Amino acid sequence: MDYKEWRHIFKLDPAKEIDANALEKICESGTDAIIIGGSDNVTLDNVIDLLMRIRRYAVPVALEVSTIESITPGFDFYFIPSVLNSIDTKWVKDLHHAATREFGEVMNWDEIIPEGYCILNPDCKAAKLTNSKQPETNDDVIAYAQMVEHMFKFPVFYMEYSGTYGDIDVVKKVKSKLVNTKLFYGGGIQTEDQAREMATYADTIIVGNQVYENLEEALKTVNAVK
Ligand code: 1GP
Fold first, then answer.
1. 126 CA to middle of ligand 1, Å?
2. In terms of residue numbers, what domain contains 72?
3. Taking the CB of residue 84, how many other CB atoms lie within 10 A of it?
4. What is the CATH number of the domain that holds 94?
5. Does 207 sit in the ligand 1 pocket, CB within 6 Å?
6. What is the pLDDT at residue 226?
């Protein structure tokens, strides 16, 4: 299945422990894909370790690249965030430039998926790490989405509410402006109902923390897109 058809993704943090039983449930849950990604303590060792464990299952697996050191072959896709509301160009395009300098000749560009990120929870780790500036109005968020679609022509716009449940009205408004660019929503999804609500407008929902907080509830979120 093309990644553009994915409706549900579990995002696993390579810096967090997950036992074999839990990982099996996640991989066999019916989710469309697993993304490995995190904000801190992401290392080549813990990325490879988790990749190998997930590879025992049929589910597609992608790396969301946050550090150049943790890039390794073997993933189906590499999601490359550009944090558009960061005020630090490192997170918008400098790391991307450095990675392309290093790996440009060996990259399979079909596996590289740029994501236009907008970080909407100012208190999350990613917002602090990337020095992201909170959009002041809904129109500011919409403008980022339109830039991603019509200027940068990225295939994915990612509304990142990591750790907190977002504003469905903004998600709905953003979706109404996107045509070809897919809308990814991630943040604070804990229940099947929340998953269903966000999946009404988002093309793809991403469930992260709840895997570690309450696995059984996390697994139920898959039902929301079936
Ligand atoms: C984090 O968007 C994902 O990058 C998912 O967010 O961890 O809050 O589910 P949560």
1. 10
2. 3-224
3. 24
4. 3.20.20.390
5. yes
6. 87
**Cα distance between residue 60 and residue 37, in whole Å:** 14
In 3D, which of 210, 202, 187, 197 has the Cα closest to residue 121?
A: 187
pLDDT tens profile 41-64: 999 999 999 999 999 999 999 999
Q: Is residue 186 lining ligand 1, measured as CB closer than 6 Å?
A: yes
State the total domains in the chain: 1
pLDDT higher than threshold 90 for residue 115? yes
Cα gap 109→210, rounded to integer Å: 32
Report the half-sphere exposure of 195 (CA within 13 A, side-chain side).
24
Amino acid at residue number 143: A
Helix (H, G, I), strand (E, B) or coil at 97: helix
Task: List, for residues 128-167, the tens digit of each pLDDT value.
Answer: 999 999 999 999 999 999 999 999 999 999 999 999 999 9
Give yes or no for residue 162 CB within 6 A of ligand 1.
yes
H runs (alpha helix) in the chain: 20-27, 44-54, 89, 95-103, 125-130, 138-146, 168-177, 192-199, 210-213, 215-220
Query: Which residue's CA is minimally distant from atom 6 of ligand 1?
Result: 187
Burial of 156 (0-12, 13-18, 19+ CB in 10 A): buried
CA gap 71, 52 in Å, rounded:
14
In degrees and rounded to multiples of 5, residue 57 shows phi and psi of -115, 165
